[in-house]
Specification:
- With about 160 residues, the chain is α+β, with helices and mostly antiparallel strands.
- It has a single domain, classed as OB fold (Dihydrolipoamide Acetyltransferase, E2P) (Beta Barrel), CATH 2.40.50.100.
- The protein is about 25% helix and about 25% strand.
- It has 3 helices and 9 strands; from the N terminus they run E-E-E-H-E-E-E-E-E-E-H-H.
- The chain has helices at about 30-35, 110-130, 150-160, and strands at about 10, 15-20, 25-30, 45, 50-55, 60-65, 65-70, 75-80, 95-100.
- The strands form 2 sheets. It has a 6-stranded antiparallel β-sheet with strand order 1-2-3-9-8-5. It has a 3-stranded antiparallel β-sheet with strand order 4-6-7.
- The chain is globular and about 50 Å long.
- The two termini are about 20 Å apart.
Length: about 160
Amino acid sequence: MSNQFSNGVFLTPSFTWVKLLDSGNLLMGVHPLVLGLFESIDEMEILKNGQSVKAGDTILKIHSGQKNLNIVAPIDGTVTGTNADLSDNPNNWIYTVKPKSIPVDNWYLAEKARTWTNEKYNNIKSFFQELSPTMADGGDLSVGVLSQFDETVCEKFQKEMLEK
């Protein structure tokens, strides 16, 4: 799996990416690995400017049909900006956030980010292979793989993959 992130972009355990801006704020988005689990995204519920967040709070709800995934904040802070063009490109940034602190000790950069992404990719692939033995063993995950399953599997995925 190739690295889709430029230098200076950290990956976090909450499947978000962050980049420190010159202003001291963070630019934040969602890892494309999570966004690619759905064939299409119907809606993304985002926070408003000025809204406070705490690490572990839901900062984004992704809706696809009856299925939903919640992405949680990797930091405490205040939303200082939102991306108005998010519906056109969900792989783009979602927020700028003024952080209370930046806990980079559990974030991943460069080679560690590539290693972390590969490990998570393999964990997600194993999760779906256990549910559907007919999925190609050793093959890549198909785009929209979560769309093939019902809401119960989506909830299980949320608990086992995104909340650990």
